[in-house]
Amino acid sequence: MVDAPLRLMGLDPGSQRTGYGIIQAGDRSKPELVAAGVISAPAKQPMERRLQKIYRELREVIASHRPQEMAVEGVFAAKNARTAIMLGQARGVALLAGAQDGLEVFEYPPASVKMALVGTGRATKEQVQMMVKAMLNTTARLPLDASDALALAICHLQSRKLLAKGLK
After folding, report:
1. Rounded distance between C-alpha atoms, residue 57 and residue 153, angstroms
2. ∠151-6-167 over CA atoms, to 5°?
3. Which of the listed residues 14, 124, 131, 148 has the most CB atoms within 10 Å of its CB?
4. What would the pLDDT profile of 31-79 be if each residue is shown by its tens digit?
5. Active site residues
């Protein structure tokens, strides 16, 4: 039986920095890093221009790397209402970009992703980054937003494997 590879995209949406990461893995193979990066949308630009840039560049990443599924950071409680609204708008654009390309989208709370990778829901971004690099066996320089996105993709891969075994 052929171990058909699956491409998964993780997204850490933000109104100024949206991290993305794409991994590939088969049923019995370790995940491999395909691509990772950050879409920057400067704060000095009007919000509609930032959202337009995020959407356009996400569509380009999806077209270029053809992931089959997308994992997005779920909503969390922000202390500042304005920040929460801006994050919600960026998340909406990310969800739309995935839907436009027919991707099935999954959401994971930040603490669940940290727990799945590091073993604690209170892990730092640096701890998550170290674990992502170890799991993907890479020494690539990864911005924190990109490693967070890769963590989402890895978490989703682990969840898929648990579901396939009937353990979740």
Report:
1. 18
2. 70
3. 148
4. 999 999 999 999 999 999 999 999 999 999 999 999 999 999 987 666 7
5. 12, 73, 145
